[in-house]
Structure formats: structure tokens, C-alpha cells
């Protein structure tokens, strides 16, 4: 009995060492899958080698997040060298020469009402108490109408009617962006606003117009 136990132990140890150093524990499933495919035919639409490649890739493939495209215009005059180069490259790739200035755009008041709706009336206090108004700049036709009659992309700014100068954010609470899409559901409908979906140039003329002299 001791002899048989000794032989069994030696055999078991040999099998374990073979699996660890020759086959590899993490490859056992792969080899069993290959053996099953060889004996019974491959019932899986993906080959076993593809399954192993997917498993080796790990969770990084399934958790990878695609970069979100930044459409918002930036004043290159206030950017550092690296950010300026990045923005210039983005401008080049955007092909601004193909943009068409819209002939049908919202007025300052239209944009103000639309953005008041979009921000759940947060602009109301800003307009009344902080004496700020929305001023809209040059608008460009946006082909991403999403079923609407009209869509344009425009820069906006907050104008302090008391100081007669533009303001970066209402009381430091920067819940506003510097550009939005404005759209009409049908011809003659009120304008509504949504997040920007197309890169447009920085409207230097807009800021120059509303900068205190």
C-alpha cells in the first residue's frame, strides 16, 4: 500500500509540475477548448485562439473610454504654448473655411430666453439681480438639425449692463458655457438651446464689441 501511495504521490507531483511549467495553469482552459473543438467540432462562432486573445487583453479593452470631442472655442491669446498648439491643430482639422454664416439666427433676447429654459431658470436671478444679459455673436449653420427646422451654432457672452463690460461668470458660478446650438422645431417657432455639437471659431469681434472702453 505504501508503495502504491508513493507512486501515486510522485505521479501527482509530476502532473502538477507539468501543468505549471509546461502547459501553464492559465492556459488549461484554452487547451481544453481546443481539445473539445478537435474531438467534437467547434460549436462556438469565435475560435478558441480569439477567446484567449480577448482574455489576455484584460479589462482595459472593456473599460476603455473614447475621448470626448471638445467643440468649444478658445481664445488662443490667453493659452499657454502647449494648449495653443493643441487648439490650432483642432482649428485646422475643423476646416472653418467650410462654415456658412447663418441668415436666420436668434436675437440677443431669443438667446436669453432659450438659455433661461436650458438652465432651468438659473439665469433669471443673474439677469435681474446681477444686471447681466446674454449677448449672442456670429452664428453658423449646423447640419445636425436632429429633425428640427433650423439649427445654428453661436458664441455667447454675459454682458454686465451696469459696468458696460462682459463678465466671465455670474458671481463666479460658472454654469454657463461660451457657445451653444440654437434651434427651431419648425418655421417661426421660438428658439431653444442645447449643448454645442459643432466646432466654431472664437468670436473675437463679439468680445471686442462688449468690452468696456
Secondary-structure class: alpha+beta
> How would the global form be characterised?
elongated
Major beta sheet, specifics? 5 strands, antiparallel
Question: How many beta-strand segments?
Answer: 5
Assign a percent range to the helix content.
40-55%
Order of helices and strands: HHHHHHHEEEEEH
Mean pLDDT: 80
Rg, alpha carbons: 31 Å
Secondary-structure topology with pairs:
Layout: H1 2-23, H2 28-40, H3 48-57, H4 60-63, H5 81-94, H6 108-118, H7 122-128, E1 132-141, E2 150-160, E3 165-167, E4 179-184, E5 192-195, H8 204-209
Give the key terms.
single chain, 41% helix, 213 residues, 5-stranded antiparallel beta sheet
Textual characterization of the structure:
The chain has 213 residues and is an alpha+beta fold. It is 41% helix and 16% strand. It is built from 8 helices and 5 strands. Strands 1, 2, 3, 4 and 5 form a 5-stranded antiparallel beta sheet that branches. Mean pLDDT is 80; it is low at 22-27 and 41-67.
Characterize this entry briefly.
With 213 residues, the protein is α+β, with helices and mostly antiparallel strands. 41% of the residues lie in helices and 16% in strands.
